[in-house]
Amino acid sequence: MLLRHTPKEITERKALTVNPAKTCQPIGAMYASLGIHGCLPHSHGSQGCYAYHRSTLTRHYKEPVMAATSSFTEGASVFGGQANLLQALNNIFTIYEPDVVAVHTTCLSETIGDDIPQIFGKARADGKIPEGKFVLHANTPSYVGTHVTGFANMTKAMVDYFAKPAEHKENRINIIPGWVEPSDMKEIKRIAGELGVKFIMFPDTENVLNGPQTGKFAMYPKGGVTIDELVSAGSSRGTIALGRLTSGPAAHALDTKCKVPCEILDLPIGIKATDRFVDSLRKMGGVNVPDSINIERGQLVDIITDMQAYFYHKKVGLVGDPDQLEALTEFLVSIDMLPIHIVTGTKDKKFEKRIKSLTEGLPCKVNVKSGGDMMLFHQWIKNEPVDLLIGNTYVKYISRDEDIPFIRFGFPILDRIGHSYFPTVGYQGGMRFLEKILDALMDRQDRDSSEIEFELVM
Amino acid sequence: MTNMPILKEREKQIYQKGAQAFDMTCEKKSLAGSVSQRACVFCGSRVVLYPIADALHLIHGPIGCASYTWDIRGALSSGPQLHRMSFSTDLKEKDIIFGGEKKLYGSRVQLIDKYHPNAAFVYATCIVGLIGDDVDSICKRVSDEKGIPVLPVHSEGFKGTKKDGYKAACDAMAHIVGTGSIEGIGELSLNIMGEFNIAGEAWIIQDYYEKMGLEVVSVFTGDGRVDKIKRSHGAKLNVVQCSGSMMHLAEIMKEKYGIPYIRVSYFGIEDMSKALYDVAEHFSDHPEVMEKTQNIVRKEIQAINPVLKQYKKVLSGKKAAIYVGGAFKAFSMIKALRSLGMEVVLAGSQTGNKDDYKLLREMCNDGTVILDDANPLELSKYCIEKGADLFIGGVKERPMAYKMGIGFCDHNHERKLSLAGYSGMLNFAKEVYSSVKSPVWKFAPEKKLS
Question: B95 contacts in A (CB within 8 Å)?
Answer without folding.
Answer: 143
